[in-house]
Design goal:
Elements (H helix, E strand, L loop, with lengths): L1 E2 L3 H16 L10 H6 L5 E4 L9 H12 L4 E6 L6 H15 L3 E4 L10 H12 L21 H5 L4 H13 L22 H16 L6 H17 L2 H16 L4 E4 L6 H5 L28 E6 L3 H12 L4 E9 L2 H11 L4 H10 L9 H7 L7 H13 L3 E13 L10 E3 L6 E3 L3 H7 L3 E7 H17 L14 H8 L12 H10 L4 H10 L2 H5 L3 H12 L10 H7 L9 H12 L3 H17 L2 H14 L4 H14 L6 H20 L1 H10 L8 H10 L4 E2 L11 E3 L6 E3 L10 H10 L8 H8 L3 H9 L4 H4 L2 H10 L24 H11 L8 H11 L5 H5 L6 E12 L8 E7 L2 E7 L1 H6 L1 H6 L2 E11 L2 E11 L12 E3 L1
Parallel strand pairs: 2-3, 3-4, 6-11, 12-14, 15-20, 17-19
Antiparallel strand pairs: 1-2, 5-6, 7-8, 8-11, 9-10, 13-14, 15-16, 15-18, 16-17, 18-19
Helix pairs in contact: 3-4, 5-13, 8-10, 13-14, 13-16, 18-29, 18-30, 19-29, 21-29, 24-25, 25-26, 27-28, 29-30, 30-31, 34-36
């Protein structure tokens, strides 16, 4: 056991840990004695001899410690009230004398209280991957390895050993407060300074952003920000982020900063964000404040499939010793807790699987006994009672260390002297051992290099449009702005696939909010969030929005100062920045205090710190003459923001992507759908739903075909505009390498025969079989059955038929029925272009008076109705008070179903398990928004036979 008495020794210890972790795979150490000896100069060492009496290597080990840690080594004596404690103490004292080392009392503490002994045992079993009953001597023989009082320790250890612990403690003066972080500076050209170089980059960026002249307000804002950045010496931080963004753009990687950074005019000038400060109400203090005195948080989204290029660029630029990803601590959730505990307690995998399948993401802990009973467990048995008790203890425990989604830490000197670095599971990734909160506490520079699938899709769509239209490539900056047709499409909630506004909740809100400009999209993005919903802002805002639309332009405000803050959202606080501004203008907060209020809103349930701000807000608003009912309303809304209020800057960044993706859907639906398919997995909808939506918008969709398909989906000339050709990437079981060879080796006139395809593309039997299953060989073989037969007749490359371009004579096999073809399509490609599965069942569904989605949309409010469709999504938001939203799909469109919590509990089997679901209920119509309120659910999945369809379920 090594101890760090001061800052330099801490750096030695941290670097030694990093060495051991970097020389081994994830989760392991590999250290040689030479590594330890090289780091020994300033560290203290407690030697833990072998537990085996008279072990011959003990004396040699002790002398090694005494030599390399001269005056800084002790023999640690650990006593746990075992039968052999007296003999063990005598043996260790004799060994210490022989080696010339003093003895010290040690506790080998593994738990804080003795009652956690059972949890310690199961954690050991989980670590070893075997049941507790099979762990044997790996378990501790008693519960003494807990924090014991000094009184109880004094009865076990000699006084001089206890006194030695105090002497060691007095030598250890190190505190994490002494860690000081220094920013990298190599981005500054020779002869310049960080301040001058940053100012030059900003000036160049302003000229690029505003070719007709920089607005005075923007120029003033930049000057204000630069002054604070210089005061806090954060120039290297901004230069680091700008360098990463510049690299990405030089490689054609689409990226955009978001979050609080969008409040910064400096970030806009540097090209980090795309939110124009001349068009937005910025609150720079949300991004950076003097009182907070910590690095700003800059989140930059990159194309999700090319982000790794940026990550490796940062590793290469700064070196593995100075750059690493932050960690994130993965904690136990209900499913992982039950799985690991169940195995440790001896439950078989079948029992654990049955239990996990019956659990839903919304289940509370107090419902667990009921769920156990439903799958055949006896909640009264000792084993099950132990499972329940340990579940309570293990939930939210750290489970393993993973890598942060993109937080990159970069230092001026060796990073390992600040925090240990270790290998990640992913190749060529290294991570530090601290998570996001640790970094904020120590003020470490963290650049968030994040991944966003929509950026990949937008860049691909721009490329496709440029190629098809033979015109200069579109960019987010050159896209036509404020197009009325785009907003009309959004108001109809025709937004499947559009960034952020494709969820059920957003689609329901769009016809009510009726956005007609960019700022409306900013509000829309932020409004459908837990904060505004819990704070009761949504309906008041919609009422005022409708009044505004009807001509009312004036609303009551309690003061001119509040009016300035809330006028842009019609008097309703929707954004975090507005809450911060309200605290300043109405309750006399400083900007730094308002930022602390914002932080407390984000964590008040855990920290309880919001209460002191509540009192300060009340006192300040009363002092400034605000009426009590208004004060209480504002406080309730602030409390609502603790359930995830959205910053305006973040919403503005997202709203830009909303508009761009909506424009592409409106004017280039084929390219947009093609780009979405090539960027999967992402978004709210499956490829099948995206393709069906494209077809409903007039896009001709063509099947997978070895004669035409590349690996990616592509665009071809069509009769009424570009046609969408499905790519080989959709074929289950076909590798990217094989798909690439098929496209690369294809002759100009196409493949002449199956044998030629196999030979030129070097396909094995598995690849040919996957193509046959996907009906991708139809042009060469005829229908799917013929393809299977012919593909089965061809062997591998060493087959006797290799090199022949002629195929075996096709067998006279019957053509598959339509239902079989559709099932085969879904099984092998995940979608079908032939017909929707429900259309084949329509006649039978009609006999049961089950309506189509199109017919449901035509129903009147409160009309009893029943519908049936494939379950595509289930969603149960935390703000919905137990309500589950289900989407059913058929050949005419989608039905939005609302399942109240009591029905969800009564019919949870049907709700969670049905692939094809019939819903008996009542139509609820609110203008263009139509829902079916469920009264009864019927599982009709048997009608689908072997058709494989999966829903996407969300919290």
């Amino acid at each position: 056991m090594l101890l760090a008495p001061d800052r330099e020794a801490y750096g030695d210890l941290s670097a030694l840990i990093a060495t051991g972790r970097r020389q081994a795979g994830k989760g392991s150490y590999r250290l040689a004695r030479a590594d330890v000896a090289a780091a020994a100069a300033r560290l203290l060492a407690l030697w833990l001899p072998s537990a085996i009496a008279d072990d011959p290597v003990d004396e040699a080990d002790g002398r090694w410690f005494a030599r390399h840690f001269a005056g800084r080594a002790w023999l640690a004596v650990e006593l746990f009230q075992d039968a052999g404690d007296r003999e063990r103490l005598a043996r260790l004292r004799a060994l210490a004398a022989l080696c010339g080392l003093p003895c010290v009392a040690a506790g080998d503490v593994h738990m804080h209280v003795r009652s956690r002994r059972a949890l310690q045992d199961v954690l050991t079993a989980i670590r070893l991957g075997k049941p507790v009953a099979e762990c044997g001597m790996a378990l501790f023989p008693n519960g003494e390895r807990h924090l014991r009082s000094r009184l109880s320790l004094a009865r076990i250890y000699p006084a001089e050993l206890m006194a030695e612990t105090v002497r060691i403690a007095e030598r250890c003066t190190f505190s994490l407060d002494s860690l000081r972080y220094e920013y990298p500076e190599e981005l500054v050209p020779a002869g310049s300074t960080p301040t001058r170089h940053l100012a030059a980059l900003i000036e160049a960026g302003l000229r690029r952003r505003y070719p007709d002249g920089v607005p005075i307000a923007v120029r003033q804002q930049v000057g204000k920000e630069l002054a604070l950045i210089a005061e806090l010496r954060y120039e290297p931080f901004f230069l680091t982020v700008e360098d990463a963004v510049a690299f990405a753009r030089s490689q054609g990687i689409l990226c955009q900063g978001r979050g609080s950074a969008a409040n910064s005019a400096v970030c806009y000038a540097l090209g980090i964000t795309e939110v124009d400060p001349s068009r937005s109400a910025l609150l720079f203090e949300r991004f950076l404040s003097r009182e907070r005195n910590e690095p700003p948080d800059i989140d930059v989204d990159f194309e999700h499939e090319r982000r790794e290029e940026v990550i490796q660029y940062l590793y290469a630029k700064y070196g593995r010793d100075r750059a690493a990803l932050a960690a994130t601590v993965i904690t136990y959730r209900p499913r992982s807790t039950l799985r690991d505990l169940g195995r440790a307690l001896g439950f078989d995998d079948g029992q654990i699987d049955r239990l996990n399948k019956t659990l839903a993401w919304w289940d509370r802990r107090d419902q667990l006994p009921q769920r156990l009973e439903e799958v055949g467990f006896d909640p009264r048995s000792r084993q099950v009672r132990l499972l329940l008790r340990l579940t309570d203890q293990l939930l939210r425990f750290p489970r393993h260390l993973s890598q942060h989604v993109g937080g990159f830490v970069i230092s001026r000197g060796p990073l390992a002297r600040l925090v240990p670095i270790e290998n990640a599971a992913m190749k060529d990734r290294t991570v530090i051992q601290w998570d996001k909160d640790d970094l904020e506490s120590l003020g470490l520079l963290k650049v968030d290099v994040l991944a966003l699938g929509m950026l990949s899709a937008i860049r691909r769509a721009f490329d496709l449009v440029a190629a098809v239209r033979r015109q200069p490539k579109l960019t987010m900056a050159t896209l036509p702005k404020e197009d009325p047709a785009v907003y009309r499409m959004i108001c109809r909630a025709d937004t499947l696939g559009v960034f952020q506004i494709e969820s059920r909740a957003q689609m329901s809100m769009l016809p009510k909010l009726k956005p007609v400009n960019f700022y409306d999209l900013v509000v829309e993005v932020a409004l459908v969030r837990p904060g505004p919903i819990q704070g009761g802002m949504v309906h008041p805002y919609l009422e005022r929005r409708e009044a505004y639309r009807q001509g009312q332009r004036e609303f009551d405000y309690p003061s001119p100062a509040v009016r300035r803050v809330l006028e842009r959202t019609l008097g309703i606080p929707i954004f975090q920045e507005q809450v911060m501004e309200l605290a300043v203008v109405a309750a006399d907060f400083t900007h730094g205090e308002s930022d602390q209020l914002r932080r407390s809103m984000a964590s008040w349930r855990q920290s309880g710190t919001l209460e002191r701000f509540r009192l300060k807000l009340k006192e300040g608003m009363r002092r400034n003459g605000y009426e009590e009912h208004y004060i209480e309303r504002i406080l309730a809304q602030i409390e609502g923001f603790s359930e995830y209020g959205f910053p305006e800057s973040h919403a503005a960044s997202f709203a830009l992507l909303v508009y761009v993706s909506a424009w592409l859907k409106r004017y280039e639906p084929a390219a947009f759908t093609c780009a979405l398919l090539n960027s999967q997995p992402m978004g709210f909808y499956s490829p099948a739903q995206l393709v069906q939506d494209a077809a409903r918008h007039g896009v001709e969709v063509r099947p997978v075909d070895v004669q035409h398909s590349g690996w990616d989906c592509s665009l071809e000339a069509g009769e009424h505009g570009p046609a969408l050709r499905l790519g080989l990437r959709l074929v289950q079981g076909l590798s990217a390498e094989a798909g690439g060879r098929i496209a690369a080796a294809r002759p100009a006139g196409g493949y002449a025969a199956l044998g030629q395809l196999q030979r030129l593309a070097a396909l094995d039997r598995r690849s040919l079989g996957a193509l046959a299953e996907a009906d991708g060989l139809a042009a060469l073989t005829g229908h799917r059955r013929q393809a299977r037969w012919l593909a089965g007749g061809l062997g591998g490359a060493a087959d006797l038929t290799a090199g022949l371009d002629e195929d075996l004579a096709p067998a006279d096999l019957p053509v598959p029925r339509l239902g079989e073809e559709i099932a085969g399509d879904y099984r092998s490609v995940g979608l079908s272009l032939r017909a929707h599965p429900v259309s084949l069942l329509r006649a039978g569904l009609r006999r049961e008076r089950l309506l189509s989605a199109g017919e449901i949309l035509a129903c009147q409010d409160r009309q009893p109705a029943r519908a049936c469709g494939i379950v595509t999504t289930r969603q149960r938001p935390g703000t919905a008070k137990g309500t589950t939203f289900v989407t059913l799909e058929d050949e005419t469109g989608c039905v939005n179903v609302v399942v109240w919590s009591d029905l969800a509990e009564r019919q949870r089997k049907e709700l969670l398990g049905a692939r094809l679901l019939a819903v008996y209920g009542v139509v609820q119509r609110d203008g263009a928004v139509v829902h079916l309120l469920a009264k009864r659910l019927v599982d009709k999945s048997a009608l689908l036979g072997e058709l494989l369809v999966e829903s996407r379920d969300f919290k």
